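re: ur question from earlier - yeah i can do the single chain one, its not a big deal. heres the input i used so u can compare w yours
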Amino acid sequence: MSTTEPSIFTRIIAREIPASIVDETERLIAFHDIAPKAPVHILVVPKTEQYANVAELAAGDPALLAELIGFAQHLADAHGGEYRLIFNTGERAGQTIFHVHAHVLIGDLGEDPRAE
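and the output i got, formated as tokens:
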């Protein structure tokens, strides 16, 4: 992907691409993932394309990171309470869009991999 092209998330924020928007604030937008990994799978995306991953966001704007986590909690509370919050950082870790975003997974995710 060229760094001069806006990410798909930037295009969703600009309403150039449709998305099932759940909620938004002045600095964040939340919408359903098109390939859900849980009964409820919501992406929370800062409206700035400035940060590629969560480490960059934490270093560059810790207040926005805290806002994102609080917004994820708000969404989880509205959809069942318990959730997983996942940030993929780097291609080998599964990140495919290099515009920082969090996955909020709510509901039965199958068997707990830690359970034996």
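The mean pLDDT is 91. not sure if urs matches, ping me
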